[in-house]
Structure formats: structure tokens, C-alpha cells
Amino acid sequence: MRIFSLALIASLGLVGCVGGIDSPPPSDDPGGGSGSGVGGGGSGSAAAEARQLFEASVEPIMSAKCLGCHSVAGPVGNITGFVDTDPSAAYATLSGYQAVVGDYTASAPILTKLSTGSHSANAKGVAYTPDEITLITSWLTKELDSRVGGGPNPTPTGESAGEATVRLTKEWSGCMDLVNFQTANMKAWGNVNANNGGNCKTCHYNGEYGMIAENQDTPFFDTIASDKYYMAQYFSVDLTGGVAAAKVIINTRSFAGVGTGIAPHQSHPRFDPENNNGMAALQEFYDLTVAAKAAAPAGVCGPPKLLN
Predict the structure, then answer these.
(1) Which of 280, 232, 273, 277 is nearest to 256 (CA)?
(2) Alpha helix segments (H runs only) across the chain
(3) What single string gives the DSSP state of each residue in 76-134?
(4) Those residues with Cβ within 8 angstroms of residue 260's Cβ, 6 or more apart along the chain or in another chain
(5) Cα–Cα distance measured from residue 99 to residue 103, given in angstroms and rounded to the nearest whole number
(6) Per-residue confidence of the chain (308 residues) as pLDDT tens digits?
């Protein structure tokens, strides 16, 4: 398995990287069927409260800590501009990057980059205060809670939305299988064509910019099975039916946001996010993984493959 140090450093990379799970409009299928629903995306009053919390407490932190290098007006070097000084655009811009918000749990890159990530050695001279960590964590929790719906099965499970998200992601990684990955022909993603931008593998072969798509089975499989942020580009946890009914689905929202150029991905070359060989392969891989999980005792196929 390759070491993706460069990719991890670049996971807050170039404008246009895959990663939007919040920006696209709602789908008619909010997470049902065979993984065809959207992943993420809060709604209602809770989502409005989450945005208000971001604007009041998190946006000022991002402006103070990150604007110097990550401004949308002029990111420094080959990195992402995810901090927008326009109040009307700041929320959509930052929350639209999967590589920044991750899965909205305590291990989201927006937190870990300054503690255990590429900025942690203080080479950037940037660190959060304890109060800032509390504010960012509170916002992430509110974002995740805003995605929890009543649904057909609102029975309490004793888990929070964050705990359910972590558990299901670990179980899913344990059920992901290389043979099924090969059977589904997931390497087709490497050759999916983006208009005027070449194939996906042109920019994402080594996991650059927080996304991996290549025409080789490994380390493509190893990466999405062992790193939850790369996995999150392909799969997400749907909470719209309530925590007790939470499940892993295909992250169609991520691909829709990038393929159609929805903010903050206006600079990414366009592609059809639904009708391509990669998405057909992803659906088959999803179905095979669902079948493996259903056949396993208590839905646990084996130890999690995740390393983070």
C-alpha cells in the first residue's frame, strides 16, 4: 500500500477537488433504495441553527487562522481557498469541502489538521485555543444532528448521531472486500472523463486533493477501505430516518456537487455525476457490500480496515 503523505498534505487542496456534500439541492430520494439517496445535507430549523452557529462562532476562527493561506480570493500555492470573506458565501464554501468537514465528527479535518495533521508540528504557526476547539466541535455536532430525521424508526438506540456514524463507517470498512471491488470494476473511475479536464486519474491517481480515482485495483481499494476521508467521497451515513435507522449509502451528493460545478466546486471540470461507468461500478460495489454485511453476524463482517 502506498504512503499518501503528499495526498494528505494536499487534502485541503486545489479549488475544484471532490468533496461537496452539502451544496446540491435536495433529492426526491433522501437516502432510500439501494444507496441512491443523497448523503449529508441538513434541513429544517436545526440546519438553520447550524449555519447560524457557524457564522457566529466558526467563521471568525477560520478568518483568523486560515484566511492568510486559504482565501478563495487567492489561496497561497497549490491549496484550496475554502475561506470566503463574503458572509453570504462563507458557509457554503467551507461546508462544501469534504476534505475540510469530513464526517462532522470529532476527527473532522477542520479540527485534526491543527492537532494531528500536517499543521500539527506548528510549522504553520497556527493552533486552536481550547475555546476555539469547543466552538468548532459544537458546530460539527449541530451539523450532524441537523441531518437526523424522525423517519419510520425513531426509537432511541443509546447512540448519538456521531457515534452511529463512526460505528457504521467502521463496520462498512470491515465488509468492503477487494474481490467485490474487482468484480464491480471500480477501477473504471480512473477513466471517467471530465469535460476539458481529462480522466479522473489525471488529477486523482495518487489520492491528490482528498480524492482517489485510478485504473488500478490497488492501492485504490486499500485507500478507500482504510482512510475514512477517502471513503467518504464514495460512501456516507444517511441519518434521515433517525439514528436507529442510520445506514451507509452512496454519496451521490458529493459527485453531484463536483460534477455540476455547485459552489464551492465551480472550477472543477464538468461531468455527468449519474450516468458514467464509475457510478455504475460504485452501485454494484455498494450492492455487493450490502449483501456481505447482511450475511454477516450482527452485520459485522470482520475487523474494521480503517486506520483513522
Answers:
(1) 273
(2) 5-9, 44-53, 59-65, 67-70, 87-95, 98-101, 109-112, 130-145, 161-175, 178-183, 200-204, 217-226, 228-231, 252-259, 277-295
(3) SSSS---B-SSHHHHHHHHHT-HHHHTTSSTT-HHHHTTTTSTTTTSTT-----HHHHH
(4) 24, 270, 273
(5) 9
(6) 443 433 333 333 333 333 332 333 333 333 333 332 223 356 677 788 999 999 999 999 999 988 888 888 776 665 677 888 888 889 988 887 877 888 888 888 898 888 765 666 555 678 899 999 999 999 998 888 888 876 555 445 678 888 899 999 999 999 999 999 999 999 999 999 888 768 889 888 888 777 899 999 999 999 999 998 899 889 999 988 888 889 999 998 888 888 888 777 777 889 998 999 999 999 999 999 999 999 999 999 999 999 98
DSSP classification of residue 43: -
Instruction: Break the chain into its structural domains and give their ranges.
Output: 5-299
